[in-house]
Design a protein that fits this description.
Elements (H helix, E strand, L loop, with lengths): L20 E5 L6 H14 L5 E5 L5 H8 L4 E5 L16 H6 L4 E4 L2 H6 L4 H14 L2 E6 L3 H5 L3 H13 L8 E4 L13 H18 L1 H6 L2 E4 L4 H8 L6 E4 L6 H13 L4 H5 L4 H4 L1
Parallel strand pairs: 1-2, 1-8, 2-3, 3-4, 4-5, 5-6, 6-7, 7-8
Helix pairs in contact: 1-2, 1-11, 7-8, 8-10, 10-11
The structure holds 1,3-dihydroxyacetonephosphate (13P).
The site of 1,3-dihydroxyacetonephosphate has 14 residues, from strand 8.
Pathway: Carbohydrate biosynthesis; gluconeogenesis; Carbohydrate degradation; glycolysis; D-glyceraldehyde 3-phosphate from glycerone phosphate: step 1/1
Family: Belongs to the triosephosphate isomerase family.
EC number: 5.3.1.1
């Protein structure tokens, strides 16, 4: 039997650098023609200062990755298996993603949690599989409207982070805070609510490893549009955005990317770590 292709990249430093990034999650939308139109247009806008990442549906990953070569656009999967290989019809491994040129994979998106019954243990397994294969997982966490109303946001997020921190190499992951009530609803978290929640996430991570918490990119997702992107991105603990609906229309997406280019955080912001007492 052929040995599973695991661990080849585990020794590479895949730690993401904390800087602004804008991630387009196309979800189950698009076509080859859409990819062929979007990637060159995104490539013309992409600049080194803000990483521009696209998450196409799986059948288009290889094409997008090829189209993106040399454009400054990077490629992410929307999901990945937790196993390196095996009898898992319909799934793909992190090593396969690395082979087709992906740098990232979304893990634990709320739509996977809701419609595919993914739990925190499985999501931690997927993050682990990515990290071992040299793919940076973008681990999505977030509370429901009911949980927020009951005052359970902190508990829900900390529990999701505990699972992440049980994963070897977790320091090399990216966390995306996507409150479930903000996804696809046109009701984004206010910049203040998003900042307070990101500060809580960073403070909780810092209890385990302050340096890792200071370095880790924390993205916000949920109804990010051209008219709220700049205010969200200006917040000190928001390092980027994960965009769904507005990423499907170049005219709606490019202003979000431009907003990120305009909001450059200083090194002092990147070095400050809130404590749990400060964010309480
Ligand atoms: O789920 C999201 C990104 O992963 C957010 O989707 P919307 O931007 O459509 O709210």
């Amino acid at each position: 039997m052929v040995e599973p292709h695991v661990g080849a990249a585990a020794n590479r430093d895949v730690s993401p650098r904390r800087r602004q990034m804008v991630v387009a999650n196309w979800k189950m939308h698009g076509s080859f023609d859409f990819c062929r139109a979007m990637i060159p247009a995104l490539g013309r806008a992409a600049q080194d200062a803000v990483e521009l990442v696209v998450c196409p549906p799986a059948p288009f990953l290889a094409t997008v990755s090829q189209l993106a070569l040399g454009t400054g656009v990077t490629c992410s999967a929307q999901d990945v298996a937790e196993l390196p290989s095996g009898a898992r019809t319909g799934e793909w491994s992190a090593a396969m993603l690395a082979e087709v040129g992906c740098r990232y994979a979304l893990v634990g998106h709320s739509e996977r949690r809701q419609h595919h019954y993914e739990d925190d243990a499985l999501i931690a397994g997927k993050a682990r599989a990515c990290l071992l294969a040299g793919i940076t997982p973008i681990v999505c966490i977030g509370e429901s409207a009911a949980e927020r109303e009951r005052g359970e946001t902190e508990q829900v997020l900390c529990n999701q982070l505990d699972w992440l921190m049980s994963t070897p190499l977790w320091r090399q992951a990216i966390v995306a805070y996507e409150p479930r009530w903000a996804i696809g609803t046109n009701q984004a978290a206010t910049p203040e609510v998003a900042q307070a929640t990101h500060a809580l996430i960073r403070a909780y991570l810092a209890q385990c490893d302050a340096q890792a918490a200071a370095r880790m990119p924390l993205l916000y997702g949920g109804s990010v549009k051209a008219d709220n992107a700049q205010q969200l991105l200006a917040m000190p603990d928001i390092d980027g955005v994960l965009v769904g609906g507005a990423s499907l229309d170049i005219a709606a997406f490019l202003p979000i990317y431009s907003a990120a280019l305009q909001v450059q955080h200083t090194d002092s912001v990147y070095q400050s770590i809130p404590t749990l007492q400060q964010v309480a």
